[in-house]
Fold these 4 entries.
Entry 1:
Amino acid sequence: MQAGKPILYSYFRSSCSWRVRIALALKGIDHEMITINLIKDGGQQFSKEFQALNPMKQVPVLKIDGITIGQSLAIIEYLEETRPTPRLLPQDPKKRASVRMISDLIASGIQPVQNLSILEQVGQEKQLTWAQNVITSGFTALEQILQSTAGRCCVGDEVSMADLCLVPQVANAERFKVDLTAYPTISRINKTLLSLEAFQVSHPCRQPDTPAELRA
Amino acid sequence: MQAGKPILYSYFRSSCSWRVRIALALKGIDHEMITINLIKDGGQQFSKEFQALNPMKQVPVLKIDGITIGQSLAIIEYLEETRPTPRLLPQDPKKRASVRMISDLIASGIQPVQNLSILEQVGQEKQLTWAQNVITSGFTALEQILQSTAGRCCVGDEVSMADLCLVPQVANAERFKVDLTAYPTISRINKTLLSLEAFQVSHPCRQPDTPAELRA
């Protein structure tokens, strides 16, 4: 099957989309982007066309090499296996385990419990507290784990998949007004990573679907 | 660092612990088990000793080769990299992507939103409906995805990490009285897998900490 340029389905504010945008930027993978507005028209992810692409009705989705992949970490692992340079997983299996543990802590333990569709079910008056509790509890654990894994980045000094999860989650934390002073290691790593170009070009404030008032 | 037998920290009913128990059984990895009762004493996962082991206060945790790994999929990926036989990820990167997509769909998209600590926050009167909605929505997507990936198992005919996620999630669905007739492919694969020894010895009804009234 001949495939053209990879196509990323993305929403500027989706933290899971941002993870993949960083991976594509770091690995320098030329691609097209189709934006899916999760709010407009009752949510474009609920359209028939998009559901056929991803029955989970979530972004990101990546069409690449003739296949369609949903779930951000599955996408990043596929990119890593097929476009290994620069690597987003260390060579040492024990360090790879740390990277995946931190990635999963964020991708399974924090993000899904504070995402848009869950917060809608929680109800407007409780949303902020709910999200803050989830993130605070996850970040408390993460801050402790980072004491034994972090260098300049989450695991040692090289950017890894864990960092691709960290930065978008910190942005969510800021959006939900979580006080980050209790997490000096998370804050330090986040700051370091945000100075890198791949994290900047992929940032929610610089996407084609970023509303004018949120642009930077 | 010299390491003895791997130690799995597990709770009989934890679906994430079950995933790892299946992996250990399939790969024939000799190990010890320490049971953590998530309910007794207000939750043994909140003890100082356990928090030092896993700041996320969750099972499973695996101590192996001198390291401590939390997060079930990170554990399984580590086992796969260090004990590759029998394989739990296919050789073809595209099929690996399908396995990881299905695993993440369950491990990020379904399980975390219906786990014990979230249901406690949702409140007793809404718990059942909440869990049913989450599982129904995830299974509807999964049933559709399996149409293009499944053989005898979730991806083709070989047992993979996706199957290790599927069976425990179906058990949760049954516990929450989800009607499974709408998911014939999920039900068929689940039945096939439950006939395998590794899925049976690891089953919640056959663990050292299974209460007498739930034993089978």
Entry 2:
Amino acid sequence: MSQEGYNVTPWEARGKIDYDKLIQEFGVERLSEPLLARINTLAGGLHPLLRRGFFFAHRDLSLVLDDYEAGRGFFLYTGRAPSKAPMHIAHIVPFIATRWLQHSFGVNTYIEIPDEEKFLAKKVDSLEEVEPYIRQDILNIAALGFDENKTFIFRDSEYIGKMYRPAVLVARHINLSTARAVFGFDNETSIGLIFYPALQIVPTLFENRRPLIPCGIDQDPYFRLQRDIAPRLNRYKTAELLSKLAWGLTGPESKMSASEPETAIMLNDPPEVVKKKIMNAFTGGRATVEEQRKLGGVPEVCTVFHWYSLLFEEDDKKLEERYWACKTGKLLCGECKAELVKRINHFLALHNEKVKDVEKKVSKYMYDGKLAQEMWNWEFKP
Amino acid sequence: MSQEGYNVTPWEARGKIDYDKLIQEFGVERLSEPLLARINTLAGGLHPLLRRGFFFAHRDLSLVLDDYEAGRGFFLYTGRAPSKAPMHIAHIVPFIATRWLQHSFGVNTYIEIPDEEKFLAKKVDSLEEVEPYIRQDILNIAALGFDENKTFIFRDSEYIGKMYRPAVLVARHINLSTARAVFGFDNETSIGLIFYPALQIVPTLFENRRPLIPCGIDQDPYFRLQRDIAPRLNRYKTAELLSKLAWGLTGPESKMSASEPETAIMLNDPPEVVKKKIMNAFTGGRATVEEQRKLGGVPEVCTVFHWYSLLFEEDDKKLEERYWACKTGKLLCGECKAELVKRINHFLALHNEKVKDVEKKVSKYMYDGKLAQEMWNWEFKP
């Protein structure tokens, strides 16, 4: 297993996706050191997901900071399409970044739950099938600690009364050929899914401030469309804080997927399942203990190290120590995995306690917190 | 001007559209004498629009009558997409038939006002442009005398909260290729218009009874799609009562169109405008009075005679007398037109008084009549 082609700084471990090339292809900007320094100053710190380069690119982020400094403010927008499986730890990464941004800048946050999308995308067979997961997803998100008076979590099917009119204004500006090009719709696509992008764009119009969307770079095309339309509706173009793709457990090129359980740690996995999945995870380890002691591991391609760096080692110094301990053959995979299992299970136990606690106040996010109340009285005025 | 190719019974005057061929092409059934006789018996009469063959074809109408006789009942559904012009007399023809059916059978009637459609179809430039006409359209429709406790008139943009979920269920069953084939969508079509047919189908699911839609035969393809989908949602296929196309004033092949004022009598045309338009209307008259006295007119192609037969002569015997008076050269166009002007202006004066009266109770149809209240609490359960 060669080291070539992999970045060697531990907080920028990566697989084969050439993110430099993506920056060029998508025409986005690199999250530069000076910009990170500026965030650091304004936010009073930098979240590990930012300082370790997982968020690596952006659109208009410096304008967002200008707006913040000038007192015009900005707002955050993200979402989660419920499916017929629980959320996994890769799903919560952008929410964790969003929550950090909310706390650091004290801004409103809108979380769309498109409860119809997977059905329209023919990924589930009925709306009923998804229903049990919708509430669970909302609880999982709310449990991450969003501000209950500055966060509005809404289901499309419930909030459509407020969304439809602005969606019509948006939809008028998206013709079929554009939608096909951006979203890859084909002849088998349902007409509901073809309309759906308009609903995904509506929350970017909720305030007459700049929206900031923390998301994977693969989501950029959706919001590039918003950037074409927003000025025609007298609204701001979305700014984006773009991340790399979180790895699944089967390798740097895998994704966590609920339909392939070995790739993902679900938020409701019991401890022994977490253990089994991590013990079977793809690592940068050698074929034998002897080889590993002699040659060292390859943390750059190791999914276990990847997840330490994303969520399970907050201390940069300790992460670097782990990196070099692996690299020099001092740390073997078994020990490193066992520790990750412990940390994930600790995280999940805490998280699921928070989920229970949040149940009592989830209606604040959806209906009766300060922002939620405002939004149930909101009307779009271009 | 030849008489060939025109039907000679006065109550079936028609232009060049071959409706027999359309019956075959669309695969619908002719509105036969025995079926008309059955309606006559059950309804205690036949509306001129039915007995004169303007409504000439159907789908499943005998099943509707079976349902009625068996006590299962049925319901009526129609609609009107507001534009940036007032309604004209051709627009109200299907509503007049619908109202007659409601009164004759005592059934619930749903009237959709798709206040977003013309905007999504790029026929108007803003939603604001349409707004003043929406209320006027609703008043014009309500003024025709629908039962205020059995009629629900709803605007898409207001009622979308109830419609979206069933629309999603419908949309899942309509893929892009079908929508393109049925509605002729192309690359320039907005994604909002592509979704719209799902919203047009939703009212056919409002009751677990058979829906009957009185409409022009050109609307049949829309509801044929409904007939494919309804069984999958455990609902009835729509029945249809299909009419010919009402003529514009410029000839049997013209349509009334607000954008060509000479073709249409608008519901708010002042008497002198009505007079001017009718005086300029295309008739079956001859070049000179002498010729007309000698050869007689051709009522079969006469737009003036057409409108007598549709709305302005209820008495079949008098209509037939008019037919023969024309045919034999006894009645000249000037006199015939002057009489129609009088009748139209009388109708419009009465109608616009009813519009004023209905203003006080329009909220019954939309919000607080018996059916309206039920519908604001409705939820679709397949």
Entry 3:
Amino acid sequence: MSKISPLSGFPELLPAQRAVEREVIASLSRTFELHGFANIETRVVEPIDRLAKGGEVDKEIYVLQRIAAAPDAKAELGLHFDLTVPFARYVLEHAGHLEFPFRRFQVQPAWRGERPQEGRYRQFTQADVDIVGRDELPFHHDVEVMSVMVDALRRLPIPRLSFQFNNRKLIQGFYRGLGIDDVTDAIRVIDKLDKLPADEVATMLVERVGTTPEQAQRCLDLATIRVGDSSFVERVRALGVTDELLDEGLEELAAVIEGCRAVAGDSVDVEANLRIARGLDYYTGTVVEIFMAGYERLKSVGGGGRYDALASDGRTTYPGVGVSFGVSRTLIPLIADGVLSGSRPVPSVVLVALNTEDDRDASAAVATALRAREIACETAPAPAKFGKQIRFAERRGIPYVWFVQADASTNEIRHQVKDIRTGTQVDADPSTWAPPEHDLRPTIVSTVSTSPHDQEENQ
Amino acid sequence: MSKISPLSGFPELLPAQRAVEREVIASLSRTFELHGFANIETRVVEPIDRLAKGGEVDKEIYVLQRIAAAPDAKAELGLHFDLTVPFARYVLEHAGHLEFPFRRFQVQPAWRGERPQEGRYRQFTQADVDIVGRDELPFHHDVEVMSVMVDALRRLPIPRLSFQFNNRKLIQGFYRGLGIDDVTDAIRVIDKLDKLPADEVATMLVERVGTTPEQAQRCLDLATIRVGDSSFVERVRALGVTDELLDEGLEELAAVIEGCRAVAGDSVDVEANLRIARGLDYYTGTVVEIFMAGYERLKSVGGGGRYDALASDGRTTYPGVGVSFGVSRTLIPLIADGVLSGSRPVPSVVLVALNTEDDRDASAAVATALRAREIACETAPAPAKFGKQIRFAERRGIPYVWFVQADASTNEIRHQVKDIRTGTQVDADPSTWAPPEHDLRPTIVSTVSTSPHDQEENQ
């Protein structure tokens, strides 16, 4: 077959890069589990009508058809484009077998046929964490699920993240208190502050939404509030709007900010940013977007919020709150930029050298003894000169080479292990020798200075 | 939305069942890594012409199309139906960045649009382990990769597995030595011994392949040899056929059998079964099929072998040897039959009870202290009566409930932890208390008596 070129939008990782992704996923999963979240996986396909978002089927869905299907057969299945739609369906389908509130995390790929660009891929992995209730879901779960994601992401050796929170009740209450009728439309216009200057947005509020210039100004005043603590409450109050829903939103947002600040430590920013709306999605309370310092061009690397109706079967409604982290969106640019790399492309800590092909069993016995104590290793593929076997280990990043030699004078077997980075070679016993903890597994090498906790794990 | 019915052929696991699958995948991955195999993941799509097998595109491939594509647009991508085709493409595409021999394992879903039945799904997860060389790959890697899979599978608490090996050189050499011209066609006929009685197969050999009745009889004699050690060598020799390729095949098969027996211990059968051919695939040496006791109806639960040309770009050829284990094909029937189950559907070991909503911070502080020592836990969702909170834990299989109470007389905080299975309640310190090791994570509960090693892990 001919030379193969990559498929645009379907990035693939080399083994050392994949080691980075696996360590990140393992770290996130460990944190989610410590907080009592169970892992699930959903099938990758959903009926196409279920993939409809707000009644409209996303133009970028990939549909599936058996190659042997009749040419005019109607496609019925599509690949999921996020993990929320399949999770909502899973909850409805399996509700009778789940305990509520149901806490789950899910790390899987999703697919969108969009134009590939940095941070936007046709196949990409996400890590989602959600809590879903039956009929009701107390607000404290908003604080919980958001702090769990803060706790998970603060452990990663990546550039500084900023969790920017808002609350749909706060926005809606404020607009309602101001006397604006079409709250949804106003939110949609305010969402354009990312792309348009403030005065143009104000003009649109007046012309499209029908606000007075004074109302428009106060909407802008609200949208520009961005602080790292709960002082936003006073600043909103100072705008002189009163409304019950606004009060509720202020209280909820303050609780989320304080709860997340308590776990964020020094490595993650937590802010109230009253411009965040997550425009067209069906959030009903807490909303969040996550940004990464120096990578603002990726837009958000994660986001989520509260849905009062994550799923419903007509009789029962399942409210949910959750947040999603873009694993591919974050890691692939960081790996491409050399910010993250894997310490080696193989799990092996030790290459057991081979004297002659006839000695393969002796070398394999050493490998078996090391593996019995959870030390990953491999036997050299061929009895080449030792210099060549050492270079073989070097090219793979394997830090130690083990030699098994019969002493010429005594004819006793002598075991030695060489740290090929330093050249130090010492006598060793295969049933007791162990490498230092940090050599045991491939680790993430990061150019980002991380918290002491992470440095410990990755040095 | 209306009631949801499952999608035939796309099985999904409940959380406790998924815990079984995760533990199995973690156990397999751990063993593969101990043997120096690196994990990779490939994108799920391949160009349709690359999914062609022996020049013919599998009728059961799912093709992919953007929903917005023109109605007459030609589909170019399909979902992979195994992990070998994408691995071969990955090797060709990334060869410049890989070190050979390249040892990898891969655990991912694959898709086939076949008629769903027990053990046959439209989406199913496989675990593959392969070694691939550039230009050449010494035979000892056949022994290595097969013993690695034996070592990985013998650790699973599943019904007894049987690895049944053969060698294509042995078959081809034998047939050639017998004077049969069309070896491939003869193999294809012998492969029907599964379904047809021996005399019918003999007749087909005479009529279709053009053998003499005596040649046909010796083909059948070969195909009925099945032994658990290398005594097959003598039995083949006794059939009186001589051929160089036959000698090579006998030697290789004996080495594979002895190598795998050395790691199989008491929990896996290793046999030479000279009827195994893996008919239509392009194997050139070692072949293997794996069967599970009591589940013969699933046919093989895994298989693989040696390809002298796993991949080729015209200039360079990449020989490979590997074996695949059907994770879904094995686990889903075992879970459905109650042979395997998860010890609980949540990772939490401890539910921290809640006195009043105002005490949520105190309970959360206990949870944080436990998590700091890797003990998974969750705080009760509501300050219900303790009996109700204990039942909440019970329904989730959480073994411990933690109580934080102010002593009425001294006003001091008193911590207690209750094992709700035994009712034993003791004073405990959140900064030092730990559950017994076997309670720490959800484990696999198996009705199969397993090796002492597994019992330790799963009791």
Entry 4:
Amino acid sequence: MQALMMNTQLMISSILRHADKNFPDSEIVSVTADNPRHRHTYKDFANRSRQLANALVELGAKFGDRIGTLAWNDYRHLELYYGVSGSGMVCHTINPKLFPEQVNYIINHAEDRFLFVDLLVVPLLEALKDHLPKVEGYIILTDEAHMPKTTLPNVMCYETLLSKQSTSFEWPEFDENTASAMCYTSGTTGNPKGVVYSHRSTVLHALGGSMPDVVAASYKETTLPIVPMFHVNAWGAPYAALMAGSKMVMPGPKMADGESLQNLIETEKVTFSSGVPTIWLGLLDYLEKTGKTIPSMTRVSVGGAACPRTIIERFKHLHNIEVVQGWGMTETSPLGTIFCKKAGMDDLTEEELIDLQCLQGRGVFGIEMRIVDENNQELPWDGVAFGALKVRGPWVASGYYGLSQVPGSEGCPVDELGWFDTGDVATINPQGYLQITDRTKDVIKTGGEWVSSIEIENAAVSHPEVAEAAAIGRYHPKWTERPLLVVVLQADSSVSTEEIIEFLQNKLHKISMPDDVVFVEELPHTATGKLNKLALRKTLEDYQFPTK
Amino acid sequence: MQALMMNTQLMISSILRHADKNFPDSEIVSVTADNPRHRHTYKDFANRSRQLANALVELGAKFGDRIGTLAWNDYRHLELYYGVSGSGMVCHTINPKLFPEQVNYIINHAEDRFLFVDLLVVPLLEALKDHLPKVEGYIILTDEAHMPKTTLPNVMCYETLLSKQSTSFEWPEFDENTASAMCYTSGTTGNPKGVVYSHRSTVLHALGGSMPDVVAASYKETTLPIVPMFHVNAWGAPYAALMAGSKMVMPGPKMADGESLQNLIETEKVTFSSGVPTIWLGLLDYLEKTGKTIPSMTRVSVGGAACPRTIIERFKHLHNIEVVQGWGMTETSPLGTIFCKKAGMDDLTEEELIDLQCLQGRGVFGIEMRIVDENNQELPWDGVAFGALKVRGPWVASGYYGLSQVPGSEGCPVDELGWFDTGDVATINPQGYLQITDRTKDVIKTGGEWVSSIEIENAAVSHPEVAEAAAIGRYHPKWTERPLLVVVLQADSSVSTEEIIEFLQNKLHKISMPDDVVFVEELPHTATGKLNKLALRKTLEDYQFPTK
Ligand SMILES: Nc1ncnc2c1ncn2[C@@H]1O[C@H](COP(=O)(O)OP(=O)(O)OP(=O)(O)O)[C@@H](O)[C@H]1O
Ligand SMILES: Nc1ncnc2c1ncn2[C@@H]1O[C@H](COP(=O)(O)OP(=O)(O)OP(=O)(O)O)[C@@H](O)[C@H]1O
Ligand SMILES: [Mg+2]
Ligand SMILES: [Mg+2]
């Protein structure tokens, strides 16, 4: 029997309309390349988004066209989020910090018709322009006064384009499963792959993510999304904040600079912020060095990589800030799990609580998860069994742009049962808290058992003279693979292989103990700063364990 | 361009699965006719819901069948919510306090195949049973020990039925627009009309309603839904609470009894509760009389009728409890608007804040609203213009069961533009706060202008000797209609018409001043306790204003 409810589609434009009608006075503060502190309101923002929609029509952009952005977190990028998606086009956010050949690959793969480009990214595109045959025009995100001299063809000025347009525009309503945005994965385990979000997935993700025990989006918050808008939609903040009427503070290009962040947080009274671990280490170090504080801040959310315990402890003890760790990926919009206490946990000691916060959190409503063994059989939630992590839900990708959409087939990440294979290896404890132990591609398979490379790395970096460490599996005639530890020492250190092995002795199970330690000057990283084990394995291709 | 996201359907069963996996230990405490304080956990509850699903299969209930419930707020009713809807059948909640002929009409109109009946409702159904030809069986919501002697045919015992079943059941996944539940309107303005909810509308309503600035559902809350589960799904609490892992306290049949409520709240440490104004008046009076307190409670939500200022003031001043008024209707699932402060309102005086709380709140994300004049032209949000309130959104009804689904046609509440006509008359202020001023059918049309009957009533009841008042429009040769005030005086009072008119003089605009006052012993009410102006107008059909 069919229900008798309205068939109202979940549209990104409805978030904007809600924000405009209910919170016209809420503020958006941005740092941009052309303005150290731009301020306007949701009302101004809604007007400008409609001007942008009219400008897109004038440019000749059509329903379904991919419109690329290479930009930082600021109000213009936010306008693109709403103006492009709201009009039925696809807002393709591109990470300008990827290697140039990756940026080139992505733009051509998505077939972007227009690129909206931050001032600082102009040189990169000038270098690539001859390899971008499908791009019809470049719109520079600035005003006439700041327009650069450039060799880019068909260049336009964003502010000039907008200024000619009317602020009236009726957002069209269409099928909620229409593509709204596109984002390529970080390329840690291979080439970046294109994820295509829908209006439906985006609105549901914003709803699920706004819940009180998830990110708790509220008019009371002033939110500073440090995680870039080219990185999985800044984890959904641009949608959740507008839905709730939060004041938004957008850090622009100065995302990783402790001084700028502290200043922004202090002067704008930021209460909540989100970012990857390295950002927080930088900020914490800056605060420690200068003795400055950020008293308005109450919570930070951390994800994208495991959050080191020290971040949680330093925020808690030095700044009375609660760290909320989440796990997710480009393919999950990104919200998968997030830390939150549960009923009955009020008696936990501070240490026990921090133990929990070091895990990756519990599943949010909307995401179902399971861990499976090599035969795709479900494993128990006992905190011990570990296997491939699979997820499903309305904001999980069903495939990649241009690759097979057939579950179970080559290129499609979804199995025959409808579960998305995350490529992560995890345990889940009896209370439902997830712990990522490794990536499937990085796990070390020794004598039929799986050893977590991350566990070895964590143990190694707890040595005071180890600056960074990577563990990879290398061929072993008897055990197939055994762990090899690759270490970068602190400057001036002269610790030996034996000392490191000795140090790890009672920290690791016998099976996880590295068979050897190799010292290097530096480790390879991906463009997003993650350890690049693919490259490391290649470098050490010919490595052989010493025969004892 | 189609997005590449999973087509996971929004299913009520996914709420249960989430609750079961993530909050197995969360508690559900119920008062039932056969147990003064039943306790179990989400885990037990999930098992029993699956037993119920198996029992329904055994009974022969099929996908789409309507399964009626006549029950109070307790765990068994909650199991019906999930077990019936989760299996793809329609959980039809029936208000046992309606007039018997209305109950009869509703059961036959919905063609319920089975009825799940609370012990206390057995006598009502015994009286009706011969007029319920489609009902194939009656399941009494109790255990074998408490089974009543009854003349009902095909009687079964709920606990016996469940105990035979396995706790394993795979919830089916199907189109999210499938009917999940059914509820008839209160019948204030005519015959009750059947609203048919979907899995989609229910899940979206729970998400939208759980938001931090809406109802803020959280694991931290202990929630007591006093609003009945036969009344618009207890305003969605059974879904929102399980989504968040809140402890639930279910008051059973003793919903309107101050002593029972105070005791439940105190012993179970309830923090949040929802109900209609009369419930709160009863509780407040009981607390005042006995000097008892409810210190665990921090918020109550009030809706279903305008919340008198005194409720807000007494809760605030005597108990430090925040009142959150919401507006909604059976057709809106029910959440339409709800009170919440906005950024920039921290400086409001307590009086100004209470003024705001007396309004019906702002639109929640998901519901769009507009007020229109008699030509369906949109009116401004200026707090002055008032017109017919129309809404749209994914949890708003598109029609009534058995009536026309064609927008704009007779029987269909949706206009040609896709807006649902609420039958309420309202203003919206510049900050987006709604004020219900009347029902379309009750508004008094005098000399081409609209006068709010509620405004007159509010003014009248502020007279210390007026117990209750109703204002209705009566025929006037010159003005078409003029207001007539009908008053019930406090016992022993002998206030005169002149004194009342004198009292209203500087409280009402001239156009709103009643032309006459009629005193009566009591006013007619609907089964849900609302003023029955339909009946009142009928009683006073022949009334004529005195010629001056
Ligand atoms: N809190 C966390 N703890 C540990 N790992 C995390 C956490 N959050 C995210 N991750 C890791 O980041 C991954 C998602 O990153 P992202 O989507 O940016 O691309 P990538 O997986 O690094 O790149 P590619 O898929 O192209 O190889 C997850 O699969 C997981 O391995
Ligand atoms: N906070 C509120 N303030 C004023 N009125 C309210 C409020 N909340 C609900 N109402 C009134 O209650 C109505 C919804 O009630 P409900 O769905 O129970 O059925 P009904 O309208 O009373 O009955 P019927 O539609 O059968 O005539 C709204 O249309 C509105 O008139
Ligand atoms: Mg990945
Ligand atoms: Mg009604």
